[in-house]
Amino acid sequence: MTIVEEHTPNPAAGDEHRPIGYGRLQRKEDPRFVRGKGHYVDDIVLPGMLHGAILRAPVAHARLVSIDTTQALANPKVVAVITGKDLEGLGLAWAPTLSYDVQAVLVTDKVRFQGQEVAFVVAEDRYAARDALELIDVEYEVLPPLVDARKALDPDAPVIRDDLEGRTDNHIFDWEAGDAAETDAVFASADVVVSQEVVYPRVHPAPMETCGAVADFDPIDGKLTLYETSQAPHAHRTIFAMVAGIPEQKIRIVSPDIGGGFGNKVGIYPGYILATVGSIVTGRPVKWMEDRSENLMSTSFARDYIMQGEIAATKDGKILGLRTNVLADHGAFNATAQPTKYPAGFFHIFTGSYDLQAAYCKVTGVYTNKAPGGVAYACSFRVTEAVYLVERMVDALARRLDMDPAELRLKNFIRPEQFPYPNKTGWEYDSGDYEKTMRLSMEIAGYDELRREQEERRARGELMGIGISFFTETVGAGPRKHMDILGLGMADGAELRVHPTGKAVVRISVQSQGQGHETTFAQIVSEELGIPPEDIQVVHGDTDQTPFGLGTYGSRSTPVSGGAVALVARKVREKAKFIAAAMLETRPEDLEWEKGRWFVKGDPSVGKTMAEIALGAVGTIELPEGIDGNLDAEVTYDPPNLTFPYGAYICVVDVDPGTGVVKVRRFIAVDDCGTRINPMIIEGQVHGGLTDGVGMALMEIIEFDEDGNNLGGSFMDYLIPTAMEVPNWETGYTVTPSPHHPIGAKGIGESATVGSPPAIVNAIIDALSPLGVTTIDMPCTPARVWEAMQGRATPP
Ligand code: MCN
Ligand code: CUM
Fold first, then answer.
1. Sheet of 492-498, strand order
2. 227 lines ligand 2 (CB under 6 A)
3. What does the alpha-carbon distance between residue 346 and residue 339 come to, in Å, rounded to a whole number?
4. Ligand 1, atom 20: nearest CA belongs to which residue?
5. Which of 274, 304, 517, 769 has minimal CB crowding within 10 Å?
6. How far is ligand 1, taken at its centre, from the CA of residue 716, in Å?
């Protein structure tokens, strides 16, 4: 790996004692992960535990005629078989989705996508449960499926959601942002308008660990303990309480180690509910773990946006306006996870990093006979789609104007002095210096030299392409007055206790799925209190042990929970001042803080360290009025705004003229996520996201045939990249702190997944442009690239 410009600690400046940003603190969680000692949901084994398996629909659209479970129940190893009818009796056949729709837990009336949950078998072991699925006899009356979202609103389209009262079509919502009239006027006055259809296909987050749950309902005290793969344990608990009617104090959700989430584990899946019902019905714990095909076919997909883009500019390349009309395929139930106000997530940040005069977007959501979910896979709530659209459009404009795409971007960036920058669709960007970041990426790439090399290669008939993407994200939802999920405002709590010996425990409401929170949140406390990171335990993933908060997605942990942790540490530090003053028999206002201790102003030799203060707090000295002894505090942090990380990515590809195979030769990624807490973890996040980008740009897609059969149901069909397909990442960074975040940090967890696909696709189009190619859709498989080279339309 090439590490460009990594900060070397400067002991003279005391850097090695600074837990944030300097040095490369190893992850606390690595010793257990690298030794295979992680503890995942499937590792949980409870006494008397049963196993559940889900019978799934083989077709995409069908009326359920009958279901016969007698044979399955006759199997001695089968303890229970649960059908939609049984759930109807319990009022649990339908569950609310995160988007105020409902989703069938088990089919009662109609199958609406292939792989939908039809029945649940509970048996003594996993094999028996699986085998018994084949003993269930189901009769379906197959209906014509609706597969193509473009046909969803046709008058003769089959109506998928006839369960919803008065429903006669497949329309879910229309949503818009920006000013349509103003944008039309800007377009009318422009010298140049470029239009293009840009498709972001359906993909899947495909975490290593699939989804699963172990439900343990105690019939004596009525307490449900649910171990589950969840990115948001507290939100799940509250929703479970509301839906199942179990009192909230009797529900404990435990999310142990999570083997990757990437958005897949935000929602509440039928399997979690079924395991719970199974446990209530049998009086024994029930484990349900889905297999890979179930995961790919039935849990949260991502994207599926068909975008008509238009960009308007002057002839010398000043971008004036941006307009888009989007058709969003939400599948059979509207189950996307995003703040309530925003049915298209944060797609309306589609004006990207550019200062333009007007913008307007309209998104229409439709039902199709496909799996529900949506807003998953490191999307920053659909910023993926937004960035992909604008960065493709800017490149299309550059080609039309015959301008260098880097130069066009540099000419149109929001300038540093314009921050905080109100964009045309309602966002206020917090901070940025885009030109600096762009120029650093060009310098690392050797941009001018690359263009010269490209010219030489082109002269020899070689297909080399250089692609650029400059993205701005909006991550860290809340503030809660604007953002909620099912009415739960998007804020996060933190509790901090410094024990008498000066070691600390911090309890947080977000949930790591591999992002290293146990390390980085300890670093934040360490920075604020001067306690070494190794002396700070981070507790998360257990609703009985942590404060309420909305969880980890949309790269919100650092922007929101990170803010909470910094503030709770400051609160403890403030309390420590009063205790120290009592111990030193002086006034608190006479004390001064330096990392790790309070000392007397003007007499640095007289002071108390955090450890001394912690012991003092529980000791025998008389404490000042209003100070209660223990060195602890709690806060709930409601962020004033989101944070706006950004980055400049440059990709170099070579396309084989004979086969259409794309080789990503180089990839330069310069990110700016404000204050960098742990450079090594940030780099890991970026490497992972860039790999996602290669996957989506070149090979990943969940496709369906005309009958609605899912063609991406296994890793034989749904390809994900390996080390073979990715180059040595070349990373760099700039630091532009967020002015409103307590430590100036912005999120990074999704940046590279968001930012990289357009760079790769732009590079491929650039490589193929001598052949007259102006567009291509992902995934750029050899077949698709080859078709484009032949001048044929790309297949849908
Ligand atoms: N970080 C840092 N300095 C910053 C910003 C972040 O050191 N300025 C660190 C954080 O402290 C944290 C990590 O980087 O340890 C990611 O932080 P953040 O950007 O706040 O993102 P979250 O922790 O909220 O993680 C969510 C994000 C999302 S939404 C997806 S999707 C995704 C991603 O994280 N899923 C992942 N990265 C993933 N990485 C792994 N290994 N597994 C997943 O499932
Ligand atoms: Cu959109 S995937 Mo992440 O936000 O968990």
1. 536-539, 504-508, 492-498, 631-637
2. no
3. 9
4. 558
5. 769
6. 29
CB-ligand 2 contact for 554 (6 Å cutoff): yes
Nearest ligand, CA 232: 2
- Looking at domain 492-637, its CATH architecture is 2-Layer Sandwich (3.30)
Peptide bond into 604 cis (omega under 30): no
Contact 601, 592 (CB under 8 A): yes
Answer yes or no: is pLDDT of 9 > 60: no
Distance CA 694, CA 663 (A): 10
Residue 678 CA, closest ligand 1 atom number: 7
| Reported ipTM exceeds the 0.95 cut | yes
CA 185, CA 202: separation in Å to the nearest integer? 34
Q: Which ligand is nearest to the CA of 303?
A: 2
Task: Tell whether ligand 2 has an atom less than 6 A from the beta carbon of residue 485.
Answer: no
If you search the block for the tokens 């199997």, which residue do you land on? 75
Q: What is the pLDDT of residues 285-332, one digit of tens each?
A: 999 999 999 999 999 999 999 999 999 999 999 999 999 999 999 999
For the segment 563-591, what is each residue's pLDDT rounded down to a tens digit? 999 999 999 999 999 999 999 999 999 99
Contact, 85 vs 91, CB < 8 A? no
Nearest ligand, CA 376? 2
Cβ partners under 8 Å of residue 732, min gap 6 = 4, 5, 440, 441, 444, 668, 669, 670, 671
Euclidean distance between CA atoms 527 and 595, whole angstroms: 8
